[in-house]
Specification:
Oligomer: single chain
Helix content: 25-40%
Number of domains: 2
CATH topology of the largest domain: Rossmann fold
Order of helices and strands: EHEEHEHEHEHEHEHEHEHEHEHEHH
Strand content: 15-25%
Structural class: alpha/beta
Radius of gyration: 21 Å
Number of helices: 13
CATH class of the largest domain: Alpha Beta
Strand order of the largest sheet: 3-2-1-4-5-6-7
CATH superfamily of the largest domain: Glycogen Phosphorylase B
């Protein structure tokens, strides 16, 4: 099947949406589909078209269009709307509710208008995929959609990450591992939804035995506020690393942190299916988070929900080594690809 793949720029892989876009493209390619995209650099799993003429090629020649949409005025969203209006078979992936616009200074009036527009278009899509149950609830209750499917994120299992990592990162990690028997990692994009301030206190929990890796992608220049924190002897900051180096440093860690700020501004609460949580879990790290986690995540023996700061710090002090990686019931990108491909198959026949 020919699929127009309208996603965030995902190659080379950095973090967040690019991780999802890359691995989903890989799995759809493995399933036998041919993917066409318009943005970003060439990658191993899609055919990149000219942004101008490619629009018409996708509309004319693709059986299905798969699009990750959001509430911003991006060309990708306009093209998705055009495809829906043109009567194409469109599958929409939604990763956030409209309330996220509050973080960008948008008013309640603006958000209500965005909801009305989204509802009008999404009701005309052949299928809507939500990344989590809270987003499905948003689709059901606010947008009035029916039949929304939940396809939770997954996580890659890192096989021989040392073979792909850069030599200077491997050398640096060897030095750190020799000095600190415990390594705690935080990875992700620095933004207002992440509880970065808690990392400072984690670094102080056991400064002579536990090192803290901070693998950061900065979304806002104003977020660069931790020079003293990053100068601690047991804190090692790495900015905008290649994906292979991120995987390697996670593999060398004992525990992974996934702390988020208060989500009271959102009607639907914490709405993500955290990518970093799955990566930590699937690679055997003791995974500490202040979210309730999804039912799938809570089934992992190395999942720890901790909401009291002192409990978090106590766990850090008691860490000795990474837990053995779980061997069964891992949720990987293969599962995400399989579930997504099944939805695409169904709508190609019925929509």
């Amino acid at each position: 099947m020919n699929i127009g793949y309208l996603y965030y720029t995902f190659f080379p892989v950095t973090g967040g949406a690019s991780v999802h876009g890359y691995y989903l493209a890989r799995e759809l390619k493995k399933a036998g589909h041919t993917l066409y995209k318009l943005n970003g650099k060439k990658d191993p799993y899609t055919t990149k078209l000219n942004p101008l003429t490619g629009v018409f090629r996708i509309l004319l020649n693709c059986d299905v269009i798969y699009s990750r949409v959001d509430y911003f005025l991006y060309r990708r969203n306009f093209f998705t709307a055009l495809a829906i209006l043109a009567g194409k078979k469109v599958v929409v992936e939604l990763n956030s509710p409209s309330d996220e616009l509050k973080l960008h200074g948008k008013s309640g009036v603006y958000i209500r208008r965005a909801d009305k527009i989204a509802a009008w278009f999404l009701k005309r899509a052949c299928a809507v995929i939500a990344v989590s149950e809270p987003i499905k609830r948003y689709c059901d209750e606010e947008l009035g959609l029916s039949g929304v499917k939940v396809v939770e994120n997954g996580g890659e299992v890192f096989h021989h990450p040392e073979s792909k990592a850069s030599e200077h990162i491997k050398k640096k990690a060897e030095e750190i591992c020799g000095k600190f028997p415990v390594r705690v990692v935080w990875s992700g994009s620095v933004n207002r939804m992440q509880n970065i301030s808690l990392l400072k206190r984690v670094a102080d929990a056991d400064p002579h035995r536990a090192a803290l890796f901070v693998l950061a992608n900065y979304e806002e220049e104003a977020s660069r506020k931790n020079p003293e924190f990053l100068q601690k002897e047991n804190v090692f900051g790495f900015e905008n690393l290649p994906r292979a180096d991120v995987e390697y440093l996670i593999s060398k860690s004992t525990a992974g942190l996934a702390f988020y700020e208060d989500y009271s501004w959102c009607r639907w609460g914490f709405y993500n299916s955290s990518l970093k949580i799955f990566e930590y879990l699937n690679n055997g790290l003791v995974t500490l988070t202040n979210t309730s986690g999804t039912p799938v995540q809570r089934q992992y023996p190395n999942f720890r929900r901790v909401t009291i700061e002192e409990d978090i710090l106590e766990i850090i002090r008691d860490l000795s080594s990474a837990e053995p990686p779980p061997r069964e019931n891992l949720r990987t990108w293969r599962d995400v690809g399989r579930e997504t491909a099944e939805i695409i198959k169904q709508i190609s026949k019925s929509c």
